[in-house]
């Protein structure tokens, strides 16, 4: 179960970029046919699919993540709009694979960020230019190209160990670093849930734990591509609008596509469209509109799971 600290109401580009770096990556493969060259997809309507992470030693997986967010706040008759646009390339570099575990380094390879708060000048920075980053992006700049964490997971994506080198575990609803897969084979329409927690601050600055869960549903499998929906459910009753304004940025609603035969994520899309009234007293309002897209790049280096080894169980 993951624990996340909710961000402040005003969305900062630095925080968003770190969150993007921890966006989830999932891979799935049928353990009995990985690397056989034959489709693992049965033809019958009641077919089931076993989803498992499968990676090879020294394999590198890269993804492009684009996050666009607009936060509008209104307090005491004053309205302010914050816009953030971030594009990053992140990677998993696999260090070790055995029958029970996968260990990999997670890092940001490059990032392009744009931020504008209210009437202030827009701030831009692209790590690929070699230019000195603005102060607002310096923390992110210091982390590019070096491992943020060394993570060990099992075949279902459960995190067994993490050595953090830098960065934040915050996710802004983008999930944990890996996708937790179901223990048993699933059929079309089957669901599985993953518990999680969000830490939010009350009006008196106390930290409150909000329990949530991610609900995954296998929607369809077509031409070897599985589509999974994901939606967050809040389990802890929230009676304070200030808490709600923090939590909504941490909830997920979207879809994931991955290659069932070869075992890797193809794309992920999440959307946010939230309005909270009264989060800072009467007359206050927050609107949060955002979209996150994640897509595989350099797919020529993405191999199905360890073809010469026994698959993870």
What would your notes on this structure say?
With 313 residues, this protein is mostly beta strands. The protein has one domain (2-34, 47-298): Lipovitellin-phosvitin complex, beta-sheet shell regions (Roll), CATH 2.30.230. The protein has 3 helices and 15 strands. Strands 1, 3, 4, 5, 6, 7, 8, 10, 11, 12, 13, 14 and 15 form a 13-stranded mixed sheet that branches. A two-stranded antiparallel ribbon has the order 2-9. Strand 5 and strand 6 (123-126) form a beta hairpin. The radius of gyration is 20 Å and the shape is globular. Keywords: Signal. Residues 1-28 form the signal peptide. InterPro entries: DUF6263.
Shape: globular
On the 0 to 100 scale, the average pLDDT is: 80
Regions with little confidence, pLDDT below 50 for 5+ residues = 9-44, 299-313
Q: Helicity level, as a percent range? A: under 10%
What is the name of the CATH topology?
Answer: Lipovitellin-phosvitin complex, beta-sheet shell regions
End-to-end distance: 21 Å
Compute the number of structural domains.
Answer: 1
- What share of residues are in beta strands? over 45%
Signal peptide: 1-28
InterPro entries: DUF6263
Keywords: Signal
Write the layout of secondary structure elements.
Elements: E1 2-5, H1 13-21, E2 48-49, E3 60-75, E4 78-97, E5 102-117, E6 123-126, H2 138-143, E7 147-153, E8 159-164, E9 186-187, E10 191-201, E11 207-222, E12 225-234, H3 241-247, E13 253-259, E14 264-277, E15 285-297
Parallel strand pairs: 1-10
Antiparallel strand pairs: 2-9, 3-4, 3-15, 4-5, 5-6, 5-7, 7-8, 10-11, 11-12, 12-13, 13-14, 14-15
């Amino acid at each position: 179960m993951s624990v996340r600290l909710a961000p402040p109401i005003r969305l900062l580009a630095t925080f968003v970029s770190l969150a993007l770096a921890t966006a989830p990556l999932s891979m799935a493969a049928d353990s009995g046919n990985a690397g056989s060259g034959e489709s693992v997809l049965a033809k019958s309507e009641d077919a089931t699919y076993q989803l498992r992470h499968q990676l090879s030693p020294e394999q590198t997986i890269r993804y492009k993540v684009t996050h666009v967010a607009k936060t509008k706040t209104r307090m005491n008759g004053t309205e302010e709009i914050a816009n953030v646009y971030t594009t990053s390339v992140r990677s998993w570099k696999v260090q070790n694979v055995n029958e029970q575990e996968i260990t990999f380094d997670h890092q940001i390879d490059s990032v392009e960020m744009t931020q504008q708060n209210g009437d202030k000048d827009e701030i831009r920075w692209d790590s690929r230019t070699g230019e000195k980053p603005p102060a607002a992006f310096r923390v992110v700049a210091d982390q590019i190209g070096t491992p943020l964490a060394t993570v060990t997971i099992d075949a279902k994506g459960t995190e067994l160990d993490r050595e953090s080198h830098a960065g934040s575990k915050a996710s802004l609803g983008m999930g944990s670093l890996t996708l937790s897969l179901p223990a048993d084979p699933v059929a079309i329409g089957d669901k599985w849930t993953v518990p999680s927690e969000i830490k939010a601050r009350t009006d008196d600055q106390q930290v409150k734990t909000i329990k949530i869960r991610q609900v995954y549903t296998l929607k369809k499998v077509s031409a070897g591509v599985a589509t999974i929906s994901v939606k967050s459910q809040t389990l802890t009753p929230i009676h304070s609008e200030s808490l709600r304004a923090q939590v909504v940025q941490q909830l997920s609603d979207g879809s994931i596509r991955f290659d069932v035969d070869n075992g890797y994520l193809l794309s992920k899309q999440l959307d946010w469209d939230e309005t909270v009234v009264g989060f800072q007293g009467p007359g206050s309002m927050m609107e949060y509109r955002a979209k996150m897209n994640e897509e595989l790049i350099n797919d020529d280096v993405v191999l199905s799971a360890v073809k010469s080894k026994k698959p993870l169980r």
